[in-house]
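Practice record 12: protein with beta-D-galactopyranose.
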Amino acid sequence: MSKKHIFFYFITLSFILTGYSQKKYTTFKPGDLWLDNNGKHINAHGGGILIYNNTYYWFGEHKTTGSLGNKAMVGVGVYSSTDLYNWKNEGIALKAVNDTTSMLQKGSIIERPKVIYNKKTKKFVMWFHHELKDQGYAAALTGVATADNITGPYTYINSFRLHPGVLPLNFSKKEFDAVEMIKDRTDKNWKEKVVKGAYFKKDFEVGQMSRDMTLFVDDDETAYHITASENNQTLHISKLADDYLSVTNEYIRVFPGGRNEAPAIFKKDGKYYMFSSGLTGWKPNPGKSAVADHIMGEWTFLGNPCIGTEKEKATTFWSQSTYVIPVIGKKDAFIFMGDRWTPKNPIDGRYIWLPVEFENIKPILKWQSEWDLNYFNNN
Ligand code: GAL
């Protein structure tokens, strides 16, 4: 090897080692492997985005390989980007711990983390779906953590059920008293009783269940917690306290018995939109959408937002909603962010990001195998 060859060999090697060989992305390719600045597939599933200082921060579940891969063995990961295509790994924002006395112990379930920024307290506040170790999905808690720096470390505060002993704004004492309980699995009036609030009443004293969840901060900085409650049968939307660390008593039941999971909210032209899914675990199902003039209701169901083949509509392009990203500096540009789960090897889960389009007031999604942000200028 000549001196010149050795020189180029070392230059190439150092580029590979420092990650600079990584080609910059200029498009989204939904469903493909998506490499971070270290050349590793992004590990931020069931995620959400916080825009801060003109930078996007993507928080999500850090999955691992194999049968424990969907459990919180590591915690919540965070990545940053200024262009939405290229992401820098910023480490673990909230760590699962080795302490068996902590609710956050490794092997518990931490899903769908969302982070918002409180301008008054100057704290970053993370909420997440939390299940306790070895209890499956029975605990149905929502958890809170805070940090002074956006990438963490986040300090865990607590996990809890919501609104013990408190009635929602759109549910009177009279209606509550009239609710009939479900006798057993053979109860023929099961569905009707669920709609009227049988699961709600069952949990009235201990607090309402909270599983798939998201957060939404309105233009006036009021924040809301949106969650699949009542055994995933009914959504609850709660106004958060001013410091975003707890819920107020103001909350509503949305689509009783509607079986919505994976809620994701965005606001356009003063209207609130929601994407959600049905209930089929890690398997995909037809997506759903809804609109409201105020986030605290009334919500109107708009049906499946997907336009495409029967299979695409039946599976939401083989994905489940998790968040909707408002694109910085582009009016009315929103990105649907979904997960294509791979429960056999959770770390390999893919991301389905698609542009949100509109047909009158209905948000719609169409498959794109490759697209970029110019899509919003041309469509
Ligand atoms: C899904 C839910 C995921 C996860 C999964 C567990 O329906 O959206 O976040 O909880 O079930 O099976």
